[in-house]
Design goal:
disordered C terminus, transferase, 3 domains, Glycogen [starch] synthase, elongated, Rossmann fold, alpha/beta, glycogen biosynthesis, 3-stranded parallel β-sheet, about 10% strand
Length: about 575
């Protein structure tokens, strides 16, 4: 189970003695998300939080209890990253048995130039939006323009939007002072409460489309006149017709009307929608504070699109995948990001990205690859340095990216795309199979262990081919290379240090994740580290830790409260009060 909403079934199954084994994977903790949304130093104070008090103060105590009971009653408890494992240990009071990184269904192209062509096609569509949004107010060279973006749910601090906007202001200052001719258009794609599209945004796209249609119509007329002139040429007239012969007065008048209709005297709008609460919107307030108003002198322009992307959108008519492929850099300086699918999607689509060491994806790539920045995966330190230093580091990364040549950016996209096998479910999905088997081993130890305590399948679960196929996970580009860390899960930071016990990669090949004859070897060199513990001790004796110890057992008072809550839930489920 992957959510506290469904996790209620776990303690109910345990209470009713239903013969089922359970695996609970937390993708974030409820209390952690609430705490990070406030202005607290979350990761440096995890061990000091009074979790019951904090949950009650925020009105989520009942939901927190459900999440915690699911965590302690599950046979196997896992998380999606080691940063979340550290968080779960302190907030949910159980150390995870392992880490199951999230993956993606990776579709590899037959040739590298195919995804580069997709980038060019999608970029052309974004260019059309930029023309409608900015042209008429002023213009700039689109061939010398870079598109940056951040996206996700509207969590102003958790997603690092505050840091992103502050860094954009500093980037704007540096580009102006350096005399750079590069223009940066930064998109913020985060759904928020809105009323409708702004009139200015709709008008810009409408008049631009009208101009495009008029130019296309005039082009067709000029082509017809040029063909007619060439077909009637007998050597007596001049060979080339004059512009006046091709462009009639009617065409000139029509073209002038369209051009003058495009002209506007205001600045381009920062937001594409009418916000429901414009005055109190955190993103707009910070944009006002740093004074990024899309002035003609600004080298950094901002477009806040508070809605989901889809191809039927009258303003920015692209699906999310198309939009990502058309951009040059994704920026996700998250403070709370248990995994982070957005930078992972960028990697799979060959788009460089910036993330942080507080995101699960950032920790995963930082630990798996020696020099991720060489592969187009830039990681900002938000853990061991001040906010000011983190903002400066992000600004420096973005400024360095703007100084790259077009060839350098193309090469970097190629290198990023080669990392996609690291995120393929064909490799990462094996860990889920291992978690399920571990749950079975804990629930039914007699089926796996003899009377002497030895593993019945000892030979089958040998470690002879533990690192078999290590080249499979090596990125296709250098100098980055996976770290051979022995028996450790990708992204391990010392959180899970127990030895492997009777679980081996070879036992899962060709079973849960079958492949075709065209697939490469699906072996995975970093097996999930898990420790077998008895089923009877999973609740009453505390959760086992990788170090072999156990967390403090629940007190009698805690157990009575939990039992009363479960009884209440049990009565509600069966229609009793």
């Amino acid at each position: 189970m992957h959510s506290p909403l469904a996790g209620l079934a776990i303690p109910l199954c345990r209470k009713r003695h239903i013969d089922v084994t359970t695996v609970f994977t937390t993708h974030a903790t409820l209390l952690g998300r609430y705490l990070c949304a406030g202005s607290v130093d979350f990761y440096n104070n995890l061990q000091y939080f009074d979790v019951d008090h904090e949950a009650g103060k925020r009105g989520i105590y009942h939901r927190y209890c459900i999440e915690r009971s699911a965590t302690h009653c599950a046979d196997v408890f896992t998380t999606v990253s080691h940063i979340t494992a550290y968080e779960s240990e302190h907030l949910l009071k159980r150390k995870p048995d392992g880490v199951l990184p999230n993956g993606l269904n990776v579709v590899k192209f037959q040739a590298i130039h195919e995804f580069q062509n997709l980038h060019a096609t999608s970029k052309a569509k974004i260019n059309e939006f930029v023309r409608g949004h900015f042209y008429g107010h002023y213009d700039f060279d689109l061939d010398n323009t870079l598109y940056l973006f951040t996206a996700g749910r509207y969590e102003y601090r958790n997603k690092g939007v505050d840091m992103f906007i502050e860094s954009l202001a500093r980037l704007n200052y540096r580009l102006q002072k350096s005399g750079s001719n590069v223009t940066v258009v930064a998109f913020i794609i985060m759904p928020a409460a809105t009323h409708s599209y702004t009139i200015e945004a709709l008008k810009g796209q409408a008049v631009t489309k009208q101009l495009r249609d008029t130019v296309t119509e005039i082009q067709n007329r000029i082509g017809a006149r040029l063909f007619d002139h060439a077909a009637r040429f007998h050597g007596e007239e001049k060979f080339m017709p004059s512009p006046n012969d091709l462009l009639s007065e009617e065409d000139q008048v029509l073209l002038k009307r369209r051009i003058f209709a495009l002209k506007r005297n205001s600045l381009p709008p920062v937001v594409t929608h009418n916000m429901a609460d414009d005055a109190n919107d955190p993103i707009l307030n910070q944009i006002r504070r740093v004074k990024l108003f899309n002035d003609s002198s600004d080298r950094v322009k901002i477009v806040f699109h508070p809605d989901f992307l889809n191809s039927n959108n009258p303003i920015l008519g692209l699906d999310y995948e198309e939009f990502v492929r058309g951009c040059h850099l994704g920026v996700f300086p998250s403070y709370y990001e248990p995994w982070g699918y957005t930078p992972a999607e960028c990697t799979v689509m060959g788009v460089p990205s910036i993330t942080t060491n507080l995101s699960g994806f950032g920790c995963f790539m930082q630990d798996l690859i020696e020099h991720p920045e060489d592969e187009g995966c830039f990681i900002i330190d938000r853990r061991m340095q001040s906010v000011e230093d983190s903002v400066n580091q992000l600004t420096e990364q973005m400024f360095g990216f703007t100084q790259r040549t077009r060839r350098q950016r193309i090469n970097q996209r190629n290198r990023v795309e080669r990392l996609s096998p690291l995120l393929d479910w064909k490799n990462l999905g094996i860990e889920y199979s291992k978690a399920r088997q571990l749950a079975l081993r804990r629930a039914y130890p007699d089926q796996f262990y003899g009377s002497d305590g030895e593993d019945i399948y000892g030979e089958a679960f040998g470690e002879a081919d533990y690192f078999a196929g290590i080249e499979r996970m090596k990125p296709g580009s250098m100098p980055a290379s996976p770290r051979l860390r022995g028996m450790a899960t990708p992204g391990d930071m010392g959180t899970l240090t127990e030895d492997m016990q009777a679980l081996n990669t070879s036992d899962y090949r060709g079973h849960a994740w079958p492949g075709t004859h065209e697939d490469e070897d699906d072996s995975y060199p970093f097996p999930l580290v898990m420790k077998v513990r008895s089923r009877s001790g999973s609740v009453m004796s505390g959760a086992s830790t990788p170090g072999g110890g156990a967390f403090r057992s629940l007190s009698e008072s805690d157990l009575k409260k939990a039992d009363a809550a479960l009884s209440q839930v049990n009565g509600d489920v069966n229609g009793h009060k």
